[in-house]
Amino acid sequence: MNEDPKDLGEDAPLPKESPPSLMAVRLPIPKLFHSVEKDAPFTHCLQCQRQLIGSGEQYVIEKVFRGTEAIIEIAMCLDCRDASGDSVSAESARALQVFFETRADFANRLMDLSLNSDEGSVNRWVDRCLFTGQMRDGLREYQVVALCQDEQIVRDFFPIMISGSVIKEISGVLSEQTKGWMNDFIDTHFGMPPEFCEPSGFRPVLI
User: Fold this and answer.
1) CA torsion, points 71, 139, 100, 80, in degrees to nearest 10?
2) How many domains does the chain have?
3) Alpha-carbon gap, residue 14 to 101, rounded angstroms
4) How wide is the angle at C-alpha 108 spanned by C-alphas 81 and 106, nearest 5°?
5) Residue 10 domain-assigned (yes or no)
6) Which residue has the higher pLDDT, 61 or 121?
7) Which residue of 30, 94, 144, 165 has the fewest C-beta atoms within 10 A of its own C-beta?
8) Residue 7, in any domain of the structure
């Protein structure tokens, strides 16, 4: 017979509360993910110019660094992000999925996020390359990606940092169609003359 909780008495143990999910935790967006051009947080989607701050909508920030200089910075609402994803070939989408699933340690990543939830931890999450463990300070090129909502970081699989050497590997698994679209997107919005990729041959890709 099922007992009514009211009949268990005052000493009955209280039900355990489920711990909040990672995505329920919000922390301020660190300066690493601010717009260098405006020296302030991103406010609008690069593609559709939708207001990001105060909209309640989630959006993605992606920045590409050469040394300490941000050479590309993108803030994009999820609608535009999804629309851009349609330009990625099925072959490339599958290759990216396999690359992340086989090279990234998801279990340790989520454990790290769950154990480090203070404001200062956001920078620690992107101090090392997700794939190689290389420290960001010693890298010539790298990319950082974050999922955000209003003026806060959403703790999901992101934020992440990927070293330039891994970006080259990722580029190597993409189809020519997808690389062509990414090059056109970057050239249209930012302009990347060929000499800018020398001598390393590094060419950013959209994660």
Assistant:
1) -10
2) 1
3) 39
4) 35
5) no
6) 61
7) 94
8) no
